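Students often ask what a holo structure prediction actually looks like on paper. The answer is less mysterious than it sounds. You provide the chain, you provide the ligand, and the output is a string of discrete structure tokens encoding the 3D arrangement of the protein together with acetoacetyl-coenzyme A.
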Amino acid sequence: MKVGVVGLGTMGAGIAQLAVEAGLETVGREVTDELGEKARGRIEHFLSRKVEKSQIDSFDIGLLSLTTDVSAFAECDVVIEAIVEELEPKRKLFAELERVCRADAVLATNTSALSVTEIAGATSTPERVVGMHFFNPAPLMPLVEIVRAERTSDGAFGTAYALGERLGKHPIRCHDTPGFVVNRILIPLLNDCVRVLDEARVTPADLDAGMKHGAGWPMGPCELVDLVGIDVHVHASEALWEKLREPRMAPPARLVAMANAGLLGRKSGRGFYEYGR
Ligand code: CAA
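The corresponding structure tokens follow.
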């Protein structure tokens, strides 16, 4: 099986890493060679650490080929999209993928809160479009949501599910509803946590300690939003709010202000916390 990954940011690089680790030929596309090389460096680093820690015996980075050209996906069996979380760029990309990919290739989106059906609607073959939603950090989080859009075929759904298993994940099946399963619950919950910061006049460190030590979370909500990216969380939150109109879905003003100020969390060096770069 040959896998394509479009966009080698945090999520895309993580997915490409899983594919290489699973021994699959992988084509990764970034907009510049420089960004592609940066992703390859990260993938090599994390896989080398896994070898050092004896979690895997070896890996073959030669399985990963980099490109800036979408036509390099022509021979892929499955292409997973992990570009910017905005509908129009995704729709444009899927129309392009439909033109360049084999007719039997499955086209998957890693969108976290947009409608897979609306993305699929940009193609004339929506039956081969499916959601494959990984969680951040993709190499470490065991879950992948396999999302059936309105017109997804059983064949495409089955291929995506099998690929999820092949990548070592625990796939769950769901339909294309806002936020799917986990984000439908997690995003308003994280929004509540951020609102409590102001309401209870608690510091991010104390709130995080509260949820870790009082609710058994592996990391606190402020640490988690910093990991996900303040901008990514705000985008996903806005998408849910637009569809469901529940006040808890709307991004808290504090997060919107942070996103506007460029405080994006770990990736920008500062969010709720500061990070060495
Ligand atoms: N690939 C492989 N290894 C990686 C890695 C990667 N991309 N990133 C980090 N690691 C490695 C680290 O290098 C580290 O190893 P070394 O230090 O030995 O090099 C190792 O993983 C473990 O790192 P940690 O000590 O930080 O790991 P941990 O045991 O504390 O667990 C965690 C980290 C899995 C992230 C855990 O804290 C956790 O489960 N947090 C919750 C994460 C979560 O909820 N994610 C979902 C976000 S929501 C989402 O993603 C949905 C959306 O659509 C927005």
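DSSP finds ten helices and eight strands in the chain.
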